[in-house]
Design goal:
8 helices; mainly alpha
């Protein structure tokens, strides 16, 4: 198994904040708002979530309200690459790990991605974090997508261990 470094809750929150700054928008949005950004209606957003093409998490302060991470609407993330990565975020029995795990995966800096988050790498944001991170973020989109998919496999293996 590859060397996977654990991250503290603080590091994950910090990574999500940096990623959200990259987006220039709030962390979670309603199905209506995500649908508006994707050019579909609320029902289609929920249908795509059931089909494994989108994901949501419970949003605070209401533990019953669901929010959709806005980065799912970014052109570099929406569509096939998002569906492909979500399909890899499964346990040993093939069950989806869930929205919180997917959100953590997309927002946390990952060792194999030169400590970039998958969102940063998919968008191709050159962050100035390190020379290796900058070089990786300049790779062709197909290469960046391949690396994120491999990282998703490692993440799933660790979560299922």
């Amino acid at each position: 198994m590859k060397d996977v470094r654990p991250y503290s809750e603080h590091q994950i929150r910090e990574a999500c904040f940096v990623t959200n700054e990259l987006l220039g928008a709030e962390v979670l949005v309603s199905a209506v708002e995500l649908g508006r950004r994707l050019g579909v209606n609320e029902g289609t957003v929920y249908a795509r979530e059931r089909q494994g093409e989108l994901f949501s998490v419970l949003s605070l302060p209401s533990a019953s309200a669901r929010g959709f991470p806005l980065f799912q609407a970014l052109p570099a993330i929406r569509g096939a690459i998002l569906s492909d990565v979500l399909a890899l975020l499964v346990d040993r029995d093939g069950n989806f790990l869930g929205g919180p795990a997917a959100h953590t995966f997309f927002c946390a800096p990952i060792y194999e991605l030169a400590f970039l988050t998958p969102v940063e790498l998919l968008v191709g944001a050159i962050t100035g974090k390190s020379e290796s991170a900058d070089a990786l973020s300049r790779k062709p989109r197909i290469d960046r997508q391949w690396r994120v998919k491999n990282a998703a496999k490692v993440f799933s293996d660790v979560c299922s261990a």
